[in-house]
Specification:
single chain; about 375 residues; alpha+beta; GMP Synthetase, Chain A, domain 3; 5-stranded antiparallel beta sheet; 11 helices; 13 strands; about 35% helix
């Protein structure tokens, strides 16, 4: 265990641990502490208290001294210079044509550095801007890009509840928030109702999520079948905070064909979580409807139509494949052969003589130049223009 004091800086909701260095400090006392950025002005929020070593971020820096009237006056002077520095920086941004929005500016206590906070959709090349600001303020300049949640924390405002923003007033760090938390608490999923000033999900959804999860264990979902003292029922509404389950009993009736079906009773019953028994989820939710029977003639006609629709695309596909695979030359040769056969029948002897004559005839291969013209045969003069 290590003895530390808690210090909070103006404009920040987070508490930091510092070494008191053997001195006693009172709560709400103004002090000067040593930080990574230099000397800073802070306020004691927790007196000397032993803290486990695992909770301390090393190195543990010391509280230098209690703040006096001069330190307080210097802090107020630095605070007054912020508006002028912000206006001057905005003029430089407009002159450079940079796509960035300035949010806030901060002077360190010893004025060794000025930090400008801004937001932007993407990365911004502000190297020339830093040079311009350094030539004006004659000190170190730091430009830090922040997100929309950090912007709301720096600027502050009034939330939907009518109080100041939690991130500005007391929250030390941002906690991850998901849409599942809104569903667990049975809230409206309208983005305008569950979003804060920053446009993100409200941080307060995280505050009550743990208690909702604890109370919601064993609670059925809407539309689920449950066993009640009166019989089987279907859940219509669930209120986790007051432990109330609204449901309607299931009634079984028979139609004209003798088939049984289920329907809900008009009366709404209210039970607690201990008075009901959840059914196996494999049985499904809701009601079981009676099977619908079609007329025999109508059903037969519908089956014939479906068979014709399935057969039509198969025939068209077979025709397309046969026409694609068969070359055009073969179709023409086959057509000419059938016409000659109908006009004059050939004998075996004539057919053999024709085949022999075709075998003795020399074959010539047709060759073309790359330009598309034929080569002239040997002993033949080229045509004009070749």
């Amino acid at each position: 265990m290590i003895n530390v004091v808690g210090v909070r800086f103006p404009g920040s909701g987070r508490e930091y641990y510092f070494d008191p260095a053997g001195r006693i400090f009172l709560k709400d006392e103004e002090v000067i502490v040593e930080t990574a950025r230099g000397m800073e002005f802070g306020i004691i929020t927790m007196t000397e208290t032993p803290v486990p070593e695992e909770q301390i971020v090393k190195p543990l820096r010391k509280v230098l001294r209690s703040a006096d009237a001069k330190d307080r006056a210097r802090y107020e002077e630095n605070k007054a210079k912020r508006d002028q520095a912000l206006l001057l920086c905005q003029e430089k941004v407009d002159a450079r044509g940079l796509d960035m929005k300035l949010v806030d500016v901060e002077y360190t206590f010893d004025r060794s550095k000025i930090i400008f906070y801004f937001t932007a959709d993407g990365r911004v090349d502000f190297r020339d801007l830093v040079k311009d600001l350094a030539s004006v303020f004659k000190t170190r300049i730091e430009l830090r890009q922040i997100g929309v949640r950090d912007e709301a924390k720096l600027m502050g405002g009034i939330g939907n509840c009518g109080r100041g923003l939690c991130c500005k007033e007391w929250m030390p760090d941002f906690q991850p928030v998901s849409i599942k938390m809104a569903k667990t608490q049975n809230l409206s999923l309208n983005p305008t109702k569950i979003s804060g000033m920053c446009g993100r999900l409200m941080c307060c959804l995280k505050f009550e999520n743990d208690i909702y999860q604890e109370l919601g264990k064993g609670m059925p979902g809407i539309g689920e079948r449950i066993e009640t003292p009166e019989g089987l029922a279907v859940v219509m509404d669930v209120n986790i905070l007051v432990d109330k389950i609204k449901c309607r009993l299931i009634q079984t009736e028979t139609n004209a064909d003798g088939d049984e079906y289920e329907k809900l009773d008009n009366e709404i019953l209210v039970y607690s979580k201990e008075e009901i028994t959840r059914q196996d989820k494999r049985r499904g939710k809701g009601l079981q409807q009676a099977p619908k029977k079609q007329q025999p003639a109508r059903q037969k006609k519908k089956e014939e139509e479906t068979e014709q629709e399935e057969a039509a695309p198969k025939e068209s596909k077979n025709r397309e494949r046969s026409s694609r695979n068969r070359p055009r030359r073969r179709r023409e040769e086959g057509k000419e052969g059938r016409e000659n056969k109908d006009q004059q029948p050939e004998t075996r002897e004539a057919k053999g003589a024709d085949e022999a004559a075709q075998a003795d005839r020399p074959r010539r291969k047709r060759r073309r130049h790359r330009g598309g013209r034929r080569k002239p045969q040997e002993g033949q003069a080229p045509k004009s223009g070749e």
